Amino acid sequence: MHLSWKKVDKGSLMRPVFRVAQGLFGLSVLMFCLLGAILFTIFAIAKGHLLYGLLVSMFALGFGFAGGMILWDALTPCYLLDKYLYKYTKKFRKKARKVTKYIDDDYKGRKKRKKYKDKKYKDKKDYKRRKYKDKKYKRDDEHAPKDDAPRRKQEPELTPEQQRERREREVLRLARDHDGRLTVAELALETSLDVDASRALLDEFLQKDVAELQVADSGSSVYVFPAFVDGGRDKHSSRSLLDDRDEVELEFEKLAEEFEHQHAEHQQAKPDKSEHKKG
Question: Domain residues for 212?
Fold first, then answer.
């Protein structure tokens, strides 16, 4: 049962009916209590029991005040019933909070309560469900391992063939940066390879006829890459090996194919060691 006509949905036909009924009920209670208080007071004075008459009149005036509030609530847009009859009683305190949630726009000049302005729950069931889920997720987060370090993408492990290709590409780039002249010490300094591995890697380019071994004035060995000396073969072209990285990649791919072909022929020409030992 609705205790105020403002609790009825807007646009419903029962809203004006409830308002009229509430006003008639409040008016009848107010008139009945006022008349009762006046009659009891007159009767008590006539019988000489003024104290009892005043007590009964006070009770009647109290009910009359309640009836006046009901009538006032029906005549005005203010929620007097919700605000005064429920708010200050323990029994209806929950009901008062529930009622004030449905405050209309006409309450005190379209005033909005801050209490319900940022309400994120739909109803009590939604509140319990969301609260349980929040607790559950919070509990899972507490037991989860804490990893404050930033997660880095792990690079896939390279095969030995891919590692060899990467090292050869690094050598070609270093040779290009050093104008086609590269020593073992410079290669070992620029990369993580030791001196022996750097010399073996440069010797592979000698076998592929990509580099030439020359002796400097100081007596040290220098590996010269003619493709990168003074801008390469196309010295006057805008697409020289020094200016365009794509040309370096294409040159390396061609050289790698030639080297693999020569390496396969060299392996086939080698005699089998196991047969040699048996003989």
Answer: 160-270
Closest listed residue to residue 81, CA positions, set 14, 4, 26, 5: 4
pLDDT for 238: 32
Tell me the per-residue pLDDT of 106-135, one tens digit each, with 9 for 90 and over. Answer: 444 444 444 444 455 555 556 566 555 555
User: Do 261 and 177 sit in the same domain of this protein?
Assistant: yes
- Average pLDDT of the chain is 68
Q: Where are the alpha helices (DSSP H) in the chain?
A: 14-47, 50-75, 80, 93-100, 124-143, 160-177, 184-190, 195-207, 245-269, 273-278
Number of domains observed in the structure of the chain: 2
**Cα–Cα distance between 150 and 63 in angstroms, integer?**
71
Helix (H) or strand (E) holding 182: strand 181-182
Per the domain annotation, does 98 fall within a domain? yes
Among 164-178, 188-202, 263-277, which is the least confidently predicted range?
263-277
240 within some domain: yes
Angle, to 10 degrees, between the axis of helix 195-207 and the axis of helix 245-269? 80
Adjacency order of strands within the sheet including 181-182:
181-182, 221-224, 212-215
Nearest-angstrom CA–CA distance, 115 and 101? 9
Q: In angstroms, rounded to a whole number, what is the distance separating the alpha carbons of residues 242 and 141?
A: 54
Instruction: Give the CA distances from residue 37 to residues 44, 67, 70, 192, in Å, rounded to whole numbers and listed in that order.
Output: 10, 14, 19, 107
Residues shown for the chain: 279
Task: Kindly state whether residue 209 falls inside one of the protein's structural domains.
Answer: yes
Which residues lie across from 214 on neighbouring strands? Answer: 222
